Amino acid sequence: MNRTKITTGLLAATAVLAALVAPAAPAEAAGNTLVVDASTSIRPVTHVGAGGLYAVASDTTPAPGLLTPLRLKQHTQPAPGVQQLGNGATVPTGDVLKTANAFTRDGAQSYARMPDVYPDFPYRWISWQDWTQKIDTMVGARVAAAGTTNINGWELWNEPDGTWDTAKAGPFLDGWTRTYRQVKLQDTVTPIVGPSYSRYYPDRMREFMARAKADGTLPDVVVWHELDDGGWADVDEHVAEYRSIERDLGISPRPISINEYGSPNQVDTPSVAAHFIAQFERTGIKDAERAYWYESGTVGGLVWNNAPTGSYWLYKWYGEMAGSMVDVTPSGDLDGFASYDSTRGIVNVAFGGTFGDNAVQVKGLAGLGSQVRVTVNYTPRSGRMANVAAPTQLSSTTVGVVNGAVTVPIPNQDYLGAYQVVVTPASGPATSYQQTYEAENATVVNASILSSSSASNSGYVGRIDGLGDGRSNSFVDFVVEVPTAGSYSLTTRYANGGAATSTQGLAFNGGAFSTVSYAPTGGWGRFATSAATPVTLKAGVNVIRLAKGSPNFAGGTGFAELDSITVTPR
Questions:
Q1: What is this structure's pTM?
Q2: What are the start-end ranges of the H helices in 284-380?
Q3: How many CB atoms lie within 10 A of CB 114?
Q4: Between vectors from CA 284 to CA 278 and to CA 285, what angle results, nearest 5°?
Q5: What is the mean pLDDT of residues 490-494?
Q6: Angle, alpha carbons 191-322-495 (nearest 5°)
Q7: Are 52 and 296 in contact (CB under 8 A)?
Q8: What is the rounded distance in angstroms from the CA atom of residue 37 to the CA atom of residue 449?
């Protein structure tokens, strides 16, 4: 969030105190070993930690295509009619309706932050009449934008612990209820997210959830921020404590969003981002967004002058992850996250956080053969205003697998930078590029990610039954990367438990829709492969949409569950 007015003194002080640059170097290197178990899945790859607050400034900032390879999942953008002048900006930026095309073409979604219709931060309350009028105007504008998709939440307020004017507006809990009900007068479809406290407060969260339950105004997504130096270390404790509140109050588990993470000292440090993402993945949150301390349209410092910084490459490695996130055991300050793509035979590990001579042990490799290829890459802490054209490859060697494992040395580790270890069969991945994309790894809009032993990778997308305007359309966006431009064949692994053929719409890169058909498969959860459909793709990253309903598509018929798609050359 724009914190210029309340953090100027802090930033001035920290600029001259190198000791405050996080994470602090350990007192001594302990020879840590990060352990990755490729045989133990913890969740599908959905890139939960990839996104940002004010990540997109306009339809062309950042430049189209620059963020697409990061597979960004979730943003928070200001609501329609934004007037906020964040961090020295001279004109408002990031209006969620004006930027929707930019994040939708990358396969991302966005919450709309409502109080950023005020020009100042902290917000300057005027009156309830004024706020009610603002709510009606914002919600009316969104409802009228029937062709706009991928806006998946109203964030009713931001950091009420420091920005809600109790003296003029009354208690925040009263204000939450009143605002919630005003939004629902026009929009009964878009989820509500909050309370968006500036940090995790157990007592305030308990009081808020109890009151919201009593009033029938529970948020669909529960939000708080993690902005303290070293805050990544507390995420697991905060999530566990919040879940205990739900159990105590008899509230069904809500998805959790950390829609601002990283302090000013941390946001440009790749190793800190690795720590945060590791926590987000293992705690099972829904999404997390990089904080907005400096420039709009940079995803918190991932890009500068429309080119990558050092931190960009950590998120690029994250974006390359496919299949399942797997178990990672940290060692001291060494932590990270990892995936295993069984369709190609790739283990992808990203990590950081300590210095000295360390190692990464990767277990569960029996399926990759007696020898594997191990590649180690590195990206530095460049700062948010220095570009890094590419990560540095430190080594690439063929090594033997012993008892299903390899140990990869990381000598002289830089505790501020981040590292990647990629393990493949010695002959390389099963295919030269990723051809199969799991539906549960994609951007799922108004449908559900479900589990089944009969599904590939044990996950699929079901309940694809939304029809209507841009708030209730039901579709799945797949971010697909191909090496060359041209014609490809797309097949879908699906289930249709009905008695008749069902249909969905197919579009790629925002183009016109065609219709795909799914013959009955004899039951739900019984998967078959559809006939091939030709698609014309550009070299690099493409977004393919399979839709029950979508703008410019009349709507599909019947029902189908999606397991995966496969894209191969024609």
A1: 0.93
A2: 310-319
A3: 25
A4: 90
A5: 98
A6: 65
A7: no
A8: 24
- Partnered with residue 535 across adjacent β-strands are 488
Q: What six digits make up the tokens of 523?
A: 């039951």
Q: Which two tokens stand for residue 118?
A: 């005020």
Whether 114 contacts 133, CB under 8 Å: no
Q: Rounded to an integer, what distance in angstroms lies between the CA atom of residue 109 and that of residue 445?
A: 9
pLDDT at 87: 82
pLDDT at 85 over 90: no
Tens digits of residue pLDDT in 379-424? 999 999 999 999 999 999 999 999 999 999 999 999 999 999 999 9
- Which residue is associated with the tokens 């208690």? 171
How far is residue 390's CA from residue 357's CA, in Å, rounded to a whole number?
A: 24
Q: Which amino acid is at 169?
A: A
Neighbours of 389 (CB within 10 A): 7
User: What integer pLDDT is reported at residue 19 of this predicted model?
Assistant: 33
Q: What is the CA radius of gyration of the chain?
A: 23
**Tokens 């390899």 belong to residue:** 406
SS3 category, 121: coil
- Around 334, how many Cα atoms within 13 Å sit in the side-chain half-sphere? 26
The one-letter code for the residue type at 548 is K
Strand intervals (E) in 332-458: 335-341, 346-352, 356-363, 371-379, 392-400, 406-413, 418-425, 436-438, 443-445, 448-451
> DSSP letter string over 23-78?
SPPPSS----EEEEEEEEEEEE---TT--BBT--SBTTBSPTTSSGGGT--EEEEE
pLDDT at 69: 94
Q: Taking the alpha carbons of 174, 175, 177, 178 in that order, is the dihedral positive or negative?
A: positive
Backbone angles phi, psi at 397, to 5 degrees: -140, 155
Query: Nearest 5°: phi and psi at 139?
Result: -65, -40
Task: Name the average pLDDT for the chain.
Answer: 93
Beta strands 443-445 and 475-482: pairing type?
antiparallel
C-beta of residue 39 within 8 angstroms of C-beta of residue 401: no
Which candidate, 81, 71, 141, 130, places its Cα nearest to that of 103?
71
Report helix, strand or coil for 382: coil
In order, the DSSP letters of 244-260 are HHHHHHT-PPPPEEEEE
Measured torsion, CA atoms of residues 344, 497, 471, 120, in degrees rounded to the nearest 10:
-40
CB 339 within 8 A of CB 323: yes
For residue 119, what are its two tokens? 């020009």
Distance separating alpha carbons of residues 354 and 352, to the nearest angstrom = 6
Determine contact, residues 352/236, Cβ cutoff 8 Å: no
